[in-house]
Amino acid sequence: MNIDLAGADWFKSSRSGAAENCVEVAFLPNSLVGVRDSKNPSGPALRFTAAEWSAFTRAATRGDFDR
Q1: CA distance linking residue 59 with residue 53, whole number of Å
Q2: Residues in Cβ contact with 45 at an 8 Å cutoff, skipping those fewer than 6 apart
């Protein structure tokens, strides 16, 4: 599926502060979620289903990815 990301409304976490080294997220059509590197906004973006994104954010909130 090819989705035009030019008009996507990208945002960073409020915890990112003024840092440039963040990921940005956009809620896309067809219940998809886009993720990209804020340092390279014209570069590639990952796309996830709503279920995949929810599973990721739940796991991150639980600390499953903490080192």
Answers
A1: 10
A2: 5, 26, 34, 35, 36
> What was the pLDDT predicted at 6?
79
Q: With pLDDT > 70 as the criterion, what percentage of the chain qualifies?
A: 91
Per-domain boundaries in the chain: 22-62
Judge whether 3 and 31 are in contact, CB under 8 Å.
Answer: no
- Name the token pair of 17: 């502060």
**CA–CA distances in Å: residue 55 to residues 37, 42, 50:** 20, 27, 9
Q: Please choose, from the candidates 31, 36, 37, the residue with its C-alpha nearest in 3D space to the C-alpha of residue 53.
A: 31
